[in-house]
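Please, is this right?
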Amino acid sequence: MESPKQNIRHLNLSELESYFVSHGEKKFRAKQVHEWIWQKGASSFDDMSNLSKDLRKYLSDHFSFPAIAIDTLQKSSDGTIKSRFRTFDKHLVEGVLIPTDERKTACVSSQIGCSLTCKFCATGYMERKRNLTYDEIYDQVVLINQQSLKEYQQKLSNIVFMGMGEPLLNYTNVMKAVERISSEDGLAMSPRRITVSTAGVAKMIKKLGDDNAKFKLALSLHAANDTKRNEIMPINESNNINSLVDALNYYYKKTKQPVTFEYILFQNFNDSLKDAEELVKVYRRVPADLVNLIEYNPIDASKFSKPTDERVEAFMNYLESHKVNARLRRSRGKDIDAACGQLANKG
């Protein structure tokens, strides 16, 4: 049986150069191919217009180029654009362009489905099929950047790993994707403009510290006591709040990077002043620079709903009166399938 072709994007520049030279091609061709792959947004060998047809055919005979493609687009009245991407093996993942006056943010996925079964998240009701490779993560950024340029004539300013999947359970590919995105021979985006959001894998948060990660880290807390957090985020049973506090402090000691807490407000579940008080206590145990309070985007499978404006305001006021730097993130794309995993779940 014929062995599968190697993904050309999994060769670095020096490996490409060695390959080209050993096959009688000029060394500079490798750099041209590398630029097409990582800087010019090529999605196939046919896009590489400064290579001869013969060379493009030769490459496609010997290598694969499994780029992801846009399957479906939804555009919200607020300018948010949600993409459903299709992978080479016919899986569906999501990415979102979130525009504001100040910034254009891409929200990208790291896994196809998710194994964490968080009760409020549409992706949590999907089986995890596989990890995305670093080049598939990169493709999402490239395609969303193209959308931003087309719709808003501006490049992406920020990237958040807050789409489908748990980034720290796909650690190697996420780190490699960030390296390619921030590399001078990639998209040359500052890692300070990239945020990786985790549901809380204590061991891997410490590994981020050991690896001196340069991007921003956000912890999806959503409940500030273990009983409630266990109920909505089963990962808390093996990564409780104390272990996460310990890991975040270790991460800070190694990187000197403060963390952000993400906190979705759910009606009559975690939105009382007692909940706010517990959140303040956790906030003070960790070098954190911000609490993002997030408006919930309800999904059919979940029992949760969003609180009244009055309860949100009271919660916010409590945090601010206790010297917590808090920001309310309004839900975007309410008129489309904006909650993570909703669009990929559709047939």
Remarks:
- The chain has two domains: 6-64, 69-329.
